[in-house]
Amino acid sequence: MRLCGVGSEYEFMSQAALAGPEMVPPLRLDLEIQPGPASLWGQPTWTLHDPAANRFFRVGTREVEILRSWRPGPVATVAEQAHTQATPVTETHVLELREFLSRNNLLRDTPDRAIPRFLRVQAAKRGLRHLLRTYLFFRIHLFQPDAFLSSLAQRTGVLFTPGFALIALGFTFLSLFLLLRQWDMFLATVPEFLNSRGALLSLVSLFGAKIFHELAHGLAAKRFGLRVTSMGVAVLLLWPVLYTNVNQSWKLNDSRQRLIIDGAGIAAELLLAAVAGFAWLLLDPGPLRDICFVLAVTSWIMSLAVNLNPLMRFDGYYLLSDLLGVDNLMERGQALLHWHVSEWLTGAGDAPPERLPGPTQSVVLVHAVCTRIYRLTLALSIAALVYALAFKALGVFLAVHQLWSSLGAPLLREIRRIWKRRQELGFRPMIRGSVFLAVVLLVLCWPWNTTIATRAMLTAAQTAHLHAPFDGVLTRVPAQEPVPTRMVHKGDALFRVHSPELEQHIRVAEIRESSTRHMSELLSMDQTMLRQRLTREAESREQRANLDGLLQRREKADIRAPLSGRLELPAQAWRTGIFVAEGTYLGTVLDTTRQRIVAYVDELELSRISPGGSARLYPYRPESRPVDCVIRSIDATAATVLETAAFASVHGGDVPARQGPKGRLILQGSAYRVVLEPISPCPTERQYFGRLEIQGQRSALIQRIIQKVRGLLTREFGI
């Protein structure tokens, strides 16, 4: 049914009269309305279509009656004509509908009102506020695929038959079963693609899978006679993804048909992953097999981990929305959540935005809470990523904006709303708000935290690492005894490295030194050769210094134990005759009579600890007991490089660090090394890691937040 917003009386009414507060302007001529699906309460609904914007609105019986009686003129006239015994209509209902239609640009405005509104909308799209609202999600239309999809749909009708669905499902389970039988080999292939080549293959495969995915959505829509008006790229959370506009699925009253459109993309990707996985099992090693592997991995991950996510506007969200029968699930859920929070704070007794069946309302509320938390976390993670990898000041700005828009601005709007209704609400919001504020302040300001937890390493108090002094061949190695009995004493000979090249250099240096020395002695007998004699003496001294340096280097060939303790050798067994390069790790000598514990503490926690403070180490090894210890020293300056990889965040530790040149681990924050000593001896055969809990001064959460913000501002802006 096409709505008509022009009556004969409109021609005789002035535009100024229609713009009055108690008048209704005409509807747009191109609007269409058709019967929709039954509501959750079994009542009939209608779908209002705006062809210009390709938007759809679901309205109820009362709204349809008003629209059928809609004529430009007084609000009271429209309400009177639309009023029936079954569906009572008041002027308030007409005014609310007029506001809704005006807000969504469904009315025919007069030129003097339409032009300023258009200019305001265009101006709003150019400001910084619009950029901040849309940087996490915006769309770029590329082409209109309807004609192409109509032609393709005629040749692919078999894809939507029950027989093909059963075959595809069976093939998917067969492929998954065969992959599980080769699961170890499949997982062992993953590290081969953790490089630039694997990243490029993943991007290409992901792009191909997404094309397949979007075509499936479009073909499913064409299967039910809908138009697909747009395909393009949507930038979601700074990541480009393809999209297909299937908004016309709102025209479908059968929820099963909408579910088919929603799930077509996921089904296509799963089938593609099954085919790729099956092909990987059959193909010989080569580029095509690599492509199949990457395609199988990316399709499974994207389908299960991303597309099925109901907290973002992916396929999982629309599947959940249609399964519940709740259109605009996110907006309606947020409105319901806001009402619940407002009622809890004020107890105003306002009517809810809508009433849903009990189980459905619970699901919608849980979804709203999870969505709010998930989106806030995701936005802050993006801000942290921008801060870490790009423009740090921009990352701080985006984080502040996201916190303000998600928490600060809604809270301020609620406070303003309560303040405007303060006389109506009385003391109820003040009491509840005060209790809520008191709880928040208690959580923020009470010094709950007394311990500082971090990863720590218990090791020998003295350690000495042994390395090959130069390139050469091992001519002496220690006896290969069991680890517990490999004890050595200071000065014991452990290794000897023989370098034929070094011996050759020494022989050449001896000959040169001897030659220049003899020549200098001969010239000293002739007083007329004074200048030549001085030159030869200088050369002789230079050759002697070179020879002494080589001899000193040869003395390092004998590697002796620098201290008494236990000798730890690497996994490979050293044997005489093995060639080792300069700097090769040969072993470590540890003093087992005394131990020390090393940990790294964040700069913000440094003021809470001091030498002499107590701590306890909880080893990760279940057979070891907790170790009581005391702080002996705290470095005066922050560490810049981590010597032990296990402390670094890239290896599962607590200290933020990144991989630097030559494999060095460079700290990204300010952390100080803390050395502790066990109170009682705890002999151990080797070093181990554990969780260290240091008893520090009590600290409130708000204090730590202020310190972090102050440190961030000082570091980035010099404030």
Automatic annotation (TrEMBL):
GO terms for cellular component: cytoplasm; membrane. Residues 204-280 form the Peptidase M50 domain. Its main location: membrane. It is a multi-pass membrane protein. Keywords: Hydrolase, Membrane, Metalloprotease, Protease, Transmembrane, Transmembrane helix. GO terms for biological process: membrane protein intracellular domain proteolysis. It is found in: Endomembrane system. The keyword Amino-acid biosynthesis does not apply. The keyword Protease applies. It comes from the Bacteria. Pfam families: Peptidase_M50. The chain crosses the membrane at residues 158-181, 193-212, 224-243, 263-283, 290-308, 382-404, 425-449. One of its GO terms (molecular function) is metalloendopeptidase activity. InterPro entries: MBTPS2 (IPR001193), Peptidase_M50 (IPR008915). Its cofactor is Zn(2+). Belongs to the peptidase M50B family. This is Putative peptide zinc metalloprotease protein. It comes from Paucidesulfovibrio gracilis DSM 16080.
